[in-house]
């Protein structure tokens, strides 16, 4: 099973993705986690990505695509995966479709969109910043990330809707109730 998790930053994709990993036994591929790890490790990729991330911008397509393709080629991703943070625009979704074909893997089964209001996102991310000490979660940066999401990533909803793969669920409520809703629609 190949699942794309969609939703604004702070919508719960990471939390639900981890629960889906445990439930389905397939890896979660999070470009955000991979980029933060590269920044922390001080790798060349991390250095290139850090300035953009600190300003709330999106890291260059070729860096993100390279991370995803490398990860999809690993043995544990052959039976499926949960994509969190990729694709982030229609061009990347088209590249992903081509990438899966090139790797001899089936296409995306479902795109699960967790809908959460912008104000709830701001509240969640400010809370997370305090709890986790995340430097990229300042209110102005959060609002910029939401604006970028709305401009660049929301068109993915139409992309997957046109393929009959989109499911939109409310991302507000208990983690367990949201998870149960996701599992129900995935079958």
TrEMBL record:
Q: In which pathway does it act?
A: Purine metabolism; AMP biosynthesis via salvage pathway; AMP from ADP: step 1/1
Catalyzed reactions per annotation: AMP + ATP = 2 ADP
Q: What is its EC number?
A: 2.7.4.3
- Keyword ATP-binding listed? The answer is yes
Enzyme type, top EC level: transferase
Entry remark concerning the domains of this protein: Consists of three domains, a large central CORE domain and two small peripheral domains, NMPbind and LID, which undergo movements during catalysis. The LID domain closes over the site of phosphoryl transfer upon ATP binding. Assembling and dissambling the active center during each catalytic cycle provides an effective means to prevent ATP hydrolysis.
Q: Write out the entry's keywords from A to Z.
A: ATP-binding, Cytoplasm, Kinase, Nucleotide biosynthesis, Nucleotide-binding, Transferase
Task: Please report which protein family the annotation says this sequence is part of.
Answer: Belongs to the adenylate kinase family.
Provide the GO MF annotations for this entry: AMP kinase activity; ATP binding
* Assembly information from the UniProt record: Monomer.
Name the record gives this protein? Adenylate kinase
Enumerate the Pfam families for this protein.
ADK
Q: Where is this region: NMP?
A: 30-59
